[in-house]
Design brief:
This protein is globular. About 40% of the residues lie in helices and about 10% in strands. The strands form two sheets. A four-stranded antiparallel sheet has the order 3-4-6-5. The protein is built from six helices and six strands, in the order αββααββαβαβα. It is an alpha+beta fold. The model is unreliable at about 195-200 (pLDDT under 50).
């Protein structure tokens, strides 16, 4: 539901290489031989999209410029609200709206130590749904075996420690965005000495 376009679940993959396309067709359907359905030519999964989902996806693609345009407008308004209300607290990620950026999410990165979990909770109590930036993969149990000894992931850790994803629905109104930024500002004022929350594993 929070994607720029959606088919409910599942999606579309684009290819430049026809051989990769043919391999992907096998993988999406259990690796079955197209001429002998239950003969597995390779590993595979069941990633077939239903005709109904595909029809929704085609209709969504017809609106892609409208939807991405709405996301860019939301990002521009957040930029303006932040520069006027949170100067000194927030690191501005971009000086201008990038042409190729779809702004699926709008992320605030704080310049000073902020208790991100505390901020998420504070905003939630005021009817504003946010979430943390994705946790770094090296902290995730599924990837522990792949982390090399003495590896440093300081950038991803810093982004996780200092970032929060703001509401970015294409249906957001100016009044909603003002409420979000006011909520962040009020939290920062009320918790001047808060410290960054870290995920400990």
């Amino acid at each position: 539901a929070n994607k720029t376009i959606t088919t409910g679940e599942g999606g579309m993959v684009c290819f430049k290489d026809s051989s990769v396309y043919e391999k992907a067709k096998l993988i999406r359907s259990h690796g079955f031989d197209p001429k002998n359905r239950y003969w597995h030519l390779t590993w595979g999964t069941n990633m077939r999209l239903t005709n109904m989902q595909a029809a929704i996806g085609v209709a969504q693609m017809e609106r892609i410029e409208e939807l991405v345009g709405a996301k860019k407008k939301i990002a521009k308004i957040y930029d303006e609200l932040i520069s006027g209300n949170l100067a000194g607290f927030v690191l501005q990620g971009k000086d201008t709206i990038l042409e190729g950026d779809s702004y699926w999410l709008y992320v605030l990165e704080f310049a000073e130590n902020v208790d991100i979990d505390g901020l998420v909770h504070y905003l939630s109590e005021r009817g504003i749904e946010t979430r943390r930036v994705f946790p770094p993969l090296n902290l995730q149990p599924a990837f522990q075996n792949y982390v090399l000894p003495n590896s440093s992931f300081s950038v991803s850790q810093q982004k996780f420690d200092s970032g929060i994803c703001l509401p970015s629905s294409t249906k957001l109104k100016l009044v909603d965005q003002v409420k979000v930024i006011d909520g962040v500002k009020n939290y920062l004022i009320e918790n001047k000495n808060s410290k960054t929350s870290k995920l400990n594993r």
